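To whoever is covering the structure queue this week,

Two jobs came back overnight. Logging them here so there's a record in the thread.

Job A:
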Amino acid sequence: MKIGMVCYGTLGDIMPFVVLAKRLLSAGHTVRMCSHSHFSDLLQSKNFEFVPVGNPFDQAHFNYVLDKIIEITDPVENILFFVNNRYLPEAKKWYEDCREAVKGCDVVVLNNFDLAGQEAASVNNIPWVTFIPCPGYVPTAYYPPLSFPQLGRWINPLSWFVLNRILRKIYDVPFNNFLRSINRPERRDIANISMYSKDLNLIGASPALCTEYPDRPNNFKFTGAWIDRYDSSYVPSKELEQFLKAGSPPIVVSFSSMGGTHGNETAKTIVEVIESLNERAIIQKGWLEMVSHTDNPNIFFAPFIPHSYLFRYASLVIQHGGAGTTQTACAAGVPSIIIPFLGDQFYWGKLLHEKKLGPPMIPISKLNKENLKEAIEKTLHNKLYKQNCVAMQERMAKEDGPSVALSFLEEFRRRGE
């Protein structure tokens, strides 16, 4: 089977596809990775067939969008800002490149929000399967949508109905303008229903962490998280090894590919709080380029380090709430303090607190020294958080998301033959 993977987004959006692609290759399938040229070194190093698609990645513009999003506290509104200012302006180029790149594939796997990629597969009569990193976007009577309170299984459907009416007015117009521009059929309820595949949707989330509700449609399948348990190819630097051996388990800070222009300011806040608590920390610079001038030997600023390696040494993780980062922390048995920027990150922040795997989230727009210090102290001294995280680690260790996804894809292909 030849699988095309259309990967739009940041590093956090792409890494689940890399994990699945490695599993597909090991099973004898062929994988063609289609993504931004910005990630060519990463994707070509994994022995995938790589096709660059879309516009060159513009870090300055991405930072501008993230700065604006931080000012928008409503999760629906900040995603809309991202769509209108980041995704749709480059969607036509993405569609045209992907239309050529996926030719010859038997099936295409892509993100549920990537309508341009979906249309590129459809125009070639290639079936497409969506990857859903966040089950919180899939309607269910048992859990409310983001920004809505839990009102029970009899009232939650009304919340989903109200949200759908709101999203229809907000999202359908700009997306359908795009679809008309490429001579493709319009869709209805794009942000809630028609962004999913009619055939197969793979929810790449842990069923131990995210409850698998009985009312989800049969074409939505939980697989488990698409995360690397351990990247055996990673070799730590001598400086990192020495730091890890030099003292107690550090706090790990990682906002991954969340950008913006306030990295130094954020780093300064975090460093001052950690120093006031006399704790050790590893701070990944990430796309925020977090750097703070300090000669404190207990603070280690690091470039990219695979989370599957780093989190095993952490006392807690301060992170943005990305689906992969959050589930990797849970798989390592480590509590998280979630500082969400946008979208589904608020779902993960809410979920971890509900599961007593960490304290209440702190939106990045509200982060300050006082609430961060309180959250760190509460997390480090709360034995229940650690106990629950270890129990979650044991449950997730029994899961193998990429292998389950592989079996669903192979079954899907057999049905189509």
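Job B:
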Amino acid sequence: MFKQEQAEYVREGIDWSYIEFVDNQDVLDLVEKRPGGVIDNLDEACRFPRATASDFVDKLCSSKIVSESPRFTRARRLPNGFTVEHYAGAVTYTADHFLGKNRDFVVAEHEQLVQGSGDAFVAALFPKSADAADGDENSSSNFLLPALPTASPRSPRGSRPSSRTSWRRWRRWSPTTSAA
């Protein structure tokens, strides 16, 4: 993201000084890469109803992309934990509730079974969508992850303070004064 912003500054002729930063692309690849990243492995583990947090962490450790990353380690003292070395430091995650919180989609076979029902009410529970490419269309990550590489970073440089805004104006209005 920072590289893109700095390239945009150069294109626009903005006077700025170069800022040293750690390139975080390898961490983004570790988390987002398909197939084999952390999120992809999480989605795959959620397809198995009896998968556990331990199964998920074992799968991460056996995944080539994840296990070969110098930014990933299995937590030593947490049985269902792993550590990702982000640009700001190491963050240890406990995978105990990852599967439960990520199971937000209907299994494709079940959805097709309900859609093919002879009962009109049951078939209408999951109407067929025209833009559905695969059975995981209800997974929120399937909407967000493909959009990440094409998204342009937003920065506050586009916003500027209003000349009419002052701290006094904001101080006069507050939830406590307007509630009376």
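Note for Job B: Residues 2-12 form the longest helix (11 residues).

Please reply-all if you pick these up so we don't duplicate work.
Q.
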